[in-house]
Design brief:
single chain, alpha/beta, Rossmann fold, 7-stranded parallel beta sheet, two-stranded parallel sheet
Amino acid sequence: MNGDYSGKHVFITGGASGIGRALALLFAREGASLLLVDINQAGLEAVAGEVESHGVKARRYQADVSDADQIARLHEKVTSEAGTPDILINCAGVAEMAAIEEAPLEDWRTVLGVNLWGSIHTLHYFLPDMYERGSGHVVNVASFAGFAASPFLGLYVTSKFALVGLTETLRAEAAIHGVGVSAICPGFIETPLLDNAKTVGFAEEGPQPLRKYIPEPEKLAKKILICIKRDKPMLIYPALYKVILLIKRLAPRGSDKFNKKAARTAYNTRHISREKTNAS
């Protein structure tokens, strides 16, 4: 345990798995107390046990971040039990693969509700307390999808583009009150998000990247900790995605052609899969 965050309270949504879990364990080794939020109660209990094995406190709160009323009650409970968080990390997220015209409206509400409104809700209730204290740091875990469109990930991309814009705006405003803000924009990371992503019109597992080349969340968590310590405005990880973003900005027509080709390939694959299913 390094003890750099000894006595600090770190609030993490989506803390029951993936990046949220990796961050919780990393902060525990730094001596912080954890305030873990997730809709998955069993996952919360498991991660809290791992955190407390490092000799620090882990409070767990089951809540749906897309529900404003639940976050209002969560705010009251957290502040009464632990006070205002020193670090607030919005990490809860869901994904869906679907053509935009085929995605049910309810799915739009779900994805935007967790990925965007979840962050809006926690900021609405917790940020004024951080401003009043005059210190702290907010981390919004967005995605590289907040910069670059991906065919058939329109719901996810929409939520992340909005979250990046929200975070950049908030950073300018929050600095007035002594609060730092960082946007985390990773590419594919080996988390349950990949396995749990809903698909509409595609094979159950959907087209997936080469999993063996995807970084573990623990590597990203270390980068996020450095980002907080240095008050960096944004983290794009792995570094390859910085190159991809540069190409998009310098050669937008080439990027456009690539996206169209990727969309056509996925579309054709889907129809081939449907034809095989119908034939059988």
